[in-house]
């Protein structure tokens, strides 16, 4: 329920859209993030780019939420740190995945999180989901099968499989957040800061491991204007802007409305991949993309 008191019914739609537009913009930049990450990252620079991307973000979050961080208990630090390890796995899978598949496929496959999460929740609670949701899940899975085939039925690419694992990891992260009691009373800014800080620590360790091809400072030194623009887009818009808009929006509208708007992310991923990345979908892949979008949208409504 919206926290804004509306004195006039005629103003309600306008005020709702003033809240909806920034949230929709978050979905747009998240959708474009797959193409941006693909554009500035190679298989040899994944950990370095992740260190740079989130290393720019964490100090800002620490400064913004310093009081909240100091108020965290030891148990909350441990719980958030554990979630940070899971989060690091998600970003590693997503980034390696998008390097080895198209931005369109990446955005559509990761949207299966919206199907996997209620299914996993049902398995944990032993409560059977509605039949409509199961049908929507089947539709989405069929869509992914078609999407990853290109011109014919072949083995999905390594990137497609990594994005599927990332969707499963996102599901695990959501379930852990709901069940790690220590973090349930922590404010969202502090929780996010500790998680991202833990993830950056993991990326830094991996980037410094013997045999690593490119250190973060080496990669940064080799960046041109295009690469720095992409990195700043990922850091400023896809992370900082997105987080603060979500915090702002959930206080002014319903979580369901925010979730619905953010659920358009795969649409924007496909749009960015096709319009800006020059990606093309064959007939089977196009049908698969439509089925994924229809299935996830139907599943979101059925699980509500």
UniProtKB/TrEMBL annotation:
Record's keyword annotation contains Cell membrane: yes
Subcellular location: Cell membrane
Family according to the record: Belongs to the EamA transporter family.
Transmembrane segments: 21-37, 43-65, 102-120, 132-152, 158-177, 189-208, 228-250, 257-275, 281-299
Keywords: Cell membrane, Membrane, Transmembrane, Transmembrane helix
InterPro entries: Diverse_Substrate_Transporter, EamA_dom, EmrE-like
Keyword tRNA-binding: no
Protein name: EamA domain-containing protein
SUPFAM superfamilies linked: Multidrug resistance efflux transporter EmrE
Organism, as annotated: Streptomyces violascens
Domain EamA: from-to ranges: 21-148, 158-296
Bilayer topology annotation: Multi-pass membrane protein
């Amino acid at each position: 329920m919206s926290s804004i008191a509306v004195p006039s019914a005629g103003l309600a739609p306008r005020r709702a859209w003033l809240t909806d537009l920034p949230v929709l913009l978050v979905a747009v930049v998240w959708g474009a993030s797959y193409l941006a990450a693909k554009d500035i990252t190679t298989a040899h620079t994944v950990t370095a780019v992740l260190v740079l991307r989130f290393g720019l973000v964490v100090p800002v979050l620490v400064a913004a939420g310093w009081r909240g961080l100091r108020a965290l208990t030891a148990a909350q630090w441990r719980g958030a740190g554990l979630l940070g390890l899971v989060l690091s796995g998600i970003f590693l899978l997503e980034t390696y995945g998008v390097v080895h598949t198209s931005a369109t496929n990446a955005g559509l496959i990761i949207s299966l999180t919206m199907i996997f999460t209620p299914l996993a929740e049902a398995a944990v609670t032993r409560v059977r989901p509605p039949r409509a949701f199961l049908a929507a899940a089947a539709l989405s899975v069929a869509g992914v099968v078609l999407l990853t085939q290109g011109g014919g039925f072949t083995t999905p690419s390594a990137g497609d499989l990594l994005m599927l694992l990332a969707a499963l990891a996102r599901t695990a992260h959501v379930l852990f957040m709901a069940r790690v009691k220590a973090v349930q009373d922590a404010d969202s800014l502090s929780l996010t800061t500790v998680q991202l800080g833990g993830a950056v620590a993991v990326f830094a360790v991996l980037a410094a491991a013997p045999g690593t091809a490119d250190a973060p400072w080496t990669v940064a030194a080799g960046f041109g204007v295009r690469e720095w623009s992409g990195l700043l887009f990922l850091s400023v818009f896809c992370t900082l802007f997105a987080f603060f808009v979500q915090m702002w929006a959930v206080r002014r509208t319903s979580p369901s409305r925010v979730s619905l708007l953010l659920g358009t992310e795969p649409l924007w991923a496909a749009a960015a991949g096709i319009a800006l990345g020059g990606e093309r979908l064959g007939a089977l892949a196009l049908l698969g993309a439509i089925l994924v979008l229809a299935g996830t949208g139907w599943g979101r409504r059925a699980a509500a």
